[in-house]
Design goal:
- A hairpin with a 7-residue loop joins β10 and β11.
- This protein has seven helices and 15 strands.
- Strands 6, 7, 8, 9, 10, 11, 12, 13, 14 and 15 form a ten-stranded mixed sheet that branches. Strands 1-5-3 form a three-stranded antiparallel sheet. A two-stranded antiparallel ribbon has the order 2-4.
- The chain is an alpha+beta fold.
- The protein folds into three domains: 2-60, RNA-binding S4 domain (Structural Genomics Hypothetical 15.5 Kd Protein In mrcA-pckA Intergenic Region, Chain A), CATH 3.10.290.10; 79-160, Pseudouridine synthase, CATH 3.30.2350; 165-273 and 282-320, Pseudouridine synthase.
Length: 322
């Protein structure tokens, strides 16, 4: 056990203070340790937002890593980039990222345990080793996993501090009314339909920001859009496109695929490009997941625009491209 006494000049939120004192741990990890009771204040369990006062004593006990009990499974994986610190994959539509109720195995984590021979960051937890972020089951595209705890901490920090570049391709039921727009609101769990997320009042949800760029409209009215994510809320693009009145084709939760003019075999959402700084070299690593065949009737019509976007590090200059 380690103890810290708050000096006269100290104070503030407990998780914020510890994030500065415990440089080897991310703020998210510290919050989990507080919630689990491994970090206490004056001998009592408290919340991460508890305000510290001079003279307070923090007790810290770091638990031993739990042994992984998930079975490694030899499942198909499409590797985009891999080194000793991390692995970037093109996740297939229909693959669940980590085990949960109703999906005990056959997940991306099971496949990673086999592919990486157990060399994944342990601080993601027993059920989510190496997992830094997630994609919905029916969304395809770029996803990164960490092989070391240091890589996990770096990537989690980059995602939480909005230092990554995330570009998605999507097909909407109808075309957006504007060529470029930013959706900025708050998202929370739907109060009655728990499988859904919904736009809510600022005091009851988390901020969600999406840049939406309209690329092309087909004769049937369906449209190809490019979405740049500035936050990473659950179902964010699906919620925001429905909020704009243009739900995604093939979305079984936020649309009614049977009533859509164009039938698609899957949810038309693809995590196309993912950029971040490498934990060891600091070099910007730009990853791209090949565009799925189902998207080609739309993307082939704007191939030159997509080629220009490939030259960008992030989404800041998208408005100037056309």
């Amino acid at each position: 056990m380690t103890s810290l006494t708050i000096p006269e000049s100290g104070g503030g939120r407990m998780d914020t203070y510890l994030a500065k004192e415990l440089s080897d741990f991310s703020r998210a990890r510290i919050q989990d340790l507080i919630k689990e009771g491994h970090i206490t204040l004056n001998g009592a369990k408290v919340k991460a937002r508890t305000t510290l006062k001079p003279g307070d004593t923090i007790q810290i006990t770091i638990p031993e890593p739990s042994a992984l009990e998930l079975p490694p499974q030899d499942l198909p994986l499409e590797v985009i980039h891999e080194d000793s610190d991390l692995i970037v994959l093109n996740k297939a539509s229909g693959m669940v990222v980590h085990p949960a109720a109703g999906n005990p195995d056959g997940t991306l984590v099971n496949a990673l345990l086999h592919h990486c021979q157990g060399q994944l960051a342990g601080i993601g937890g027993v059920e989510r080793p190496g997992i830094v972020h997630r994609l919905d089951k029916d969304t395809s595209g770029c996803i990164v996993a960490a092989k070391t705890d240091r890589a996990h901490q770096s990537l989690v920090s980059q995602f939480s501090e909005r230092q990554t570049a995330k570009l998605y391709l999507a097909i909407t039921e109808t075309p957006p009314k504007k060529t470029h727009q930013t959706v900025f609101n708050h998202i929370a769990r739907h109060p009655r339909q728990r499988q859904k997320m919904d736009v809510c009042n600022p005091g009851t949800g988390k901020p969600a920001i999406t840049d939406v760029h309209h690329l092309w409209t087909a004769e049937d009215g369906s449209a190809l859009i490019l979405c740049a994510l500035h936050t990473g809320r659950t179902h964010q693009i699906r919620v925001h496109t429905r909020y704009l009145g243009h739900p995604l084709l093939g979305d079984p939760i936020y649309a009614k695929p049977a009533r859509q003019k164009r039938e698609t075999p899957r949810l038309m959402l693809h995590a196309w490009r993912l950029g971040f700084s490498h934990v060891e070299t600091g070099q910007w690593l730009q990853n791209e997941a090949p565009i799925p065949e189902e998207f080609l009737p739309w993307t082939d019509r704007v191939s030159q625009r997509l080629d220009k976007i490939r030259l960008l590090k992030d989404s800041q200059e998208l408005d100037a491209l056309w």
